[in-house]
Amino acid sequence: MHTKEKPYVCILCSKAFSWRINLHRHYRSHANKKSFVCETCGEEFPLKNNLVEHYRTHSSNDRPYSCKTCGVGFSQKSALTVHSRIHSHDRSFVCDACGKAFVERSQLKIHYRTHTNEKPFVCNICSKAFTSKSALVTHYHIHVSEKKFTCSVCSKVFFQKSRLVEHYQTHSNEKPFACDVCDKSFSRKGNLNRHYFSHATEKSFKCDICESTFFRKDCLKEHIRTHKDKKLHACVVCGRTFLKSTNLFTHYRIHTNEKPFACDICNQAFAQKSTLDRHYFTHTDKKPFPCNTCSKSFSKNSDLVRHYRMHTKEKPFVCDKCNKAFSRKYLLDRHYRVQNYYKPYVCCVCSETFSQVDHLHKHHCKKMKNEEQNGIISCTASV
């Protein structure tokens, strides 16, 4: 009781307290109070860093980097670079779960937490957690505000009107947020966003430029805009284009069957290092994705999603010609090729075509083995 430790700190003025209840009482002193005053213009601010940021508006020397489009000044060149993306519509950081694009990597990082439900910022008064620090700061005003919104059905109290409106939907069973992939509906948008992540492992729409995949067509269209006016690298074998030369180099391994990344445990080889990294999980006991039906655990979320279909017998991928259904998209793709006699995989040595990439790989191995026996150098070595 007599310890000098004060773990409860006010985020508004940095004053510390030994007891949470004392911090709670202290927050009330900040209600409708602005403590930090600008000596130049007299404007008041609730946070000290708000005042520091405001001071820069009075000093042109502190903002030497100006935007040529709107004239806003910045103290750092990097801040101007980020700001310029707003005018050029350059949103380079794209969420691979829902396709939404962002100007800054930090914005994408915060957004991604809506899919993973990660909430690292916790209120030290009521223990409620948030995905971003700004959301936590906004939440703190609830504890210092006197205004409350009460549900007329169950008398539950809320400090924000939007929360009350959202709460009313639990009484009416209204679910206005519908998934456009499987038509499942939700009463809260956050639940819909988390649900979308369950579809992220079966992505139907692939970008031909950078190979990013999306489970919604509109997300792919939005993503393709990020490639406008960018230099593309084309494969001389099949004509496919890539944003980066490194991606093209990796792609060539499909034609050459080269697999330079080998597992030092089981010697299985892979064309990409990222695939090898994922493979290593199969050798560890770490399986963080448990099935809540049979308690079986998996090292990857995608494996868990596929496993669930064993319980639900779900087959979401349906052939639009014969209505035959499949549990995984690659099985549907394979079915289409057989049905249409489509053979997209071409041998760069003899031009023979195949409907499946593994058939092409077997063909390459057989051909290279014959050439080695006959002392012939394969043309694939020069690709």
Automatic annotation (TrEMBL):
Its main location: nucleus. The keyword Transport does not apply. Keywords: DNA-binding, Metal-binding, Nucleus, Repeat, Transcription, Transcription regulation, Zinc, Zinc-finger. Residues 8-35, 36-63, 65-92, 93-120, 121-148, 149-176, 177-204, 205-232, 233-260, 261-288, 289-316, 317-344, 345-373 form the C2H2-type domain. SUPFAM superfamilies: beta-beta-alpha zinc fingers. InterPro entries: Znf_C2H2-type, Znf_C2H2_sf, Znf_C2H2_type. It is found in: Nucleus. GO terms for biological process: embryonic morphogenesis; positive regulation of DNA-templated transcription. GO terms for cellular component: chromosome; nucleus. One of its GO terms (molecular function) is zinc ion binding. Pfam families: zf-C2H2 (PF00096). Belongs to the krueppel C2H2-type zinc-finger protein family. This is Zinc finger protein 865. It comes from Larinioides sclopetarius.
